[in-house]
Write a structure and sequence with these properties.
7-stranded parallel β-sheet, 3 domains, 475 residues, alpha/beta
């Protein structure tokens, strides 16, 4: 990795490096490999990474390396006031805001190292998302007093329309054509006024500039709603960054293929040097249990069989010290499973908390595990109820699928499956630290054609389809 980074800096050639290690695992030592050539490089470099990681590097890793290498390269925090010398540390929000906003030319000729590109699409879409909170309507009426009645009427019509959607847990709804037309009519009325609040200006600009994801978040208890719009894909805006400056992108496992064709397409990346490191078979092999007799997840029998299978698994490993993690994406099923297990295993069972005992059983969804797995000890057993395929019940997922269909592109292979594989690889990464057991109860891995890609993403592993007590006691 150090050679690749040094080569990219020296020749100005971009590179993509898949480390095979989880994003956000700050204890991983591979980061020293890219810090060394950065600190030895005589010219400025921008390092983009999540804030907790940047703080760890700034306080711990960089001072140690500076002392060992006998270098004194200046370390700055990235901003529009930064002098553009030495190593500039940038969190994703600050860097993207500068590159995608009015400061697009700021430090545009300085090479960039991005650590954690597993989340690059999420970072970018968040940066490009514009929103209107309930209070923004009052600000608009105050700034446009002559149009206050029309603005109030538009808000009433929109409130009536969005509240006709049936209640559901996430309270997120795509804006229908009639709802969008109400907003378009309002935009036309306030179009030329220079006193429009910044939130409305930004929302209108994003609406018209590739903001095809348009949705409402309903706050039923308060009788209000928030509006959002964002681009369906981020490749177009990111491609302008890659064309301007050499960049080294470092991620855990962003694509199952070395050249990462799907990831490059999603991120608007050109041809570049691409390297994919595989987990070490001797030290990072997992024990993989996939029963081949379970019913499919969409059948009525699945939940009952799943709960019984997990209960059996926990009973067989009751004498094994270490954390057990059960990942259940279905919210009602997660609550039901936790309640059943708590009745038998007591206070060992916890739901989505980092306050878990040494031998605790953590029941969690995918989002919580992704965010907090770095704060917990490596589990000896990780059980996964179903594959983390984005749910078509999520309206934002539905909108993105519709976009791929409009483009006559394979929405499953280009969107749903890559997202699931990325999530899956990140989820099991801590288990590799102790060569533990991963149990997957989704038989689609065996019975669907894409199952081979799932297994390839899980490699290296030793697999059986029956419960082996020796695996559980050795993990």
């Amino acid at each position: 990795m150090a050679r690749l980074v040094a080569r990219a800096l020296r020749l100005g050639r971009s590179a993509l490096i898949q480390t095979g290690l989880p994003a956000g695992a700050y204890r991983q030592r591979y980061r020293v490999s890219y810090l060394m050539p950065i600190l030895m490089w005589p010219k400025p470099v921008i390092l983009v990474a999540p804030t907790p990681l940047l703080e760890h590097l700034r306080v711990v890793e960089i001072p140690r390396l500076q002392e060992w290498l006998q270098t004194d390269k200046p370390i700055d925090i990235y901003s529009h006031n930064a002098a553009g010398r030495g190593l500039m540390l940038a969190d994703p929000d600050s860097w993207l805001a500068a590159r995608l906003g009015g400061n697009s030319e700021l430090h545009s000729n300085i090479p960039i190292i991005i650590d954690g590109v597993d989340d690059l699409e999420v970072w970018t879409r968040q940066q490009l998302t514009a929103g209107l909170a309930p209070a923004d309507w009052n600000d608009l009426m105050q700034s446009q007093s002559m149009l206050a009645d029309e603005i109030r009427e538009a808000r009433v019509l929109l409130t009536r329309a969005v509240f006709q959607h049936p209640a559901k847990p996430d309270e997120c709804y795509l804006l229908e054509t009639a709802e969008q037309n109400i907003l378009k009519g309002l935009f036309e009325r306030i179009e030329q006024n220079p006193l429009i609040p910044a939130a409305w200006v930004n929302f209108r600009q994003r609406w018209e500039a590739n903001g095809r994801l348009r949705w409402a978040q309903i706050h039923r208890s308060g009788g209000s709603f928030s509006l959002f719009c964002a681009p369906v894909q981020v490749a177009e805006v990111l491609s302008k960054i890659w064309a301007a400056v050499p960049v080294v992108l470092i991620g855990g496992a962003v694509d199952v293929e070395q050249k990462a064709p799907i990831f490059r397409q999603m991120m608007g990346l050109p041809e570049l040097t691409s390297v994919r490191f595989s987990p070490d078979r001797q030290n990072e092999l997992i024990q993989l249990y996939i029963p081949n007799w379970l019913p499919l997840p969409n059948t009525p029998e699945f939940q009952g069989v799943l709960i019984q299978e997990i209960r059996t698994l926990l009973l067989m490993s009751v004498s094994v010290a270490g954390l057990t993690v059960l990942i259940v994406g279905d919210v009602p099923l997660k609550a039901r499973l936790a309640a059943i297990l708590a009745s038998e295993f007591g206070t060992r069972v916890r739901v989505e908390t980092t306050d878990v005992g040494e031998n605790g059983i953590l029941v969690t969804g995918w989002e919580f595990w992704r965010e907090y797995q770095g704060e917990l000890s490596a589990p000896h057993l990780l059980a996964i109820a179903t594959l983390p395929l984005p749910s078509l019940e999520n309206p934002l997922v539905t909108a993105r699928v519709a976009y791929y269909k409009e483009q006559r592109r394979d929405w499953f292979r280009l969107y749903l499956l890559p997202a699931a594989l990325n999530e899956l690889q990140r989820a099991i990464a801590p288990v590799r630290e102790r060569q533990g057991v991963v149990a997957i109860f989704d038989s689609r891995v065996i019975h669907r054609s894409y199952g081979q890609q799932v297994l390839a993403a899980l490699s290296p592993f030793a697999r059986i389809n029956y419960l082996d007590t020796t695996w559980l006691t050795q993990a």
